[in-house]
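Minutes, project check-in
Item: structure for the 150-residue chain
Input as provided by the requester:
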Amino acid sequence: MTVTIGQYEYSLDPKNRLVVPPRYREALHAEKAPHFILAIGQDQCLWLFLPSQWEAFLEDAKSLSREVKDKAKARAARRHLFSSAVEAPLDDQGRVLVPQNLKDYAALAKDVVVVGAGNKAEIWSRGRWTEYSRKQAAPSFSELAKDLDL
C-alpha cells in the first residue's frame, strides 16, 4: 500500500476544485483506479484516500468497532463518516471537486494545504493547518519522539 507523505500548498479555485499533488495522482494511476475517496476527517480537515487506503481503512475500522462498547455511538460515527464520503475523480488538469458541504466542514477558503498522513492525505485550510501544526502536531511529535527514542 502507498504511504502518503509530504506537504503541498495549493489554492482552491472558484469552482471548488483542488489540484492533487502529482505523486498522489501517480499513485492513483498505478492502482488503475478511477477516483479518490474524499470524506470528513478529524480536527476539521478532509481525508483524501487512494482506493487501496480506503479499503484498508474500512478493514481497520471494522475491527476496531468490535471493541467499542457503545454500539449506538459507533453506528452514529459510521453514519456521519460514510454519509460525507464521496468519490472524487480527477479531471484533465489533475484536480478533484470538493463538494460544498465538505468545503464548509473544513472551513476551506482559497489557500489550502494537502498533508500526507501515512494512510491517507489530509486537506486543511492553510491557516488552520499552521495553527494546528504549531500548537498540537509539533509538540506532540517532540514529546512522543523522546518517549519512543526516535
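Outcome recorded: The chain is about 45% helix and 25% strand.
No further action items on this chain.
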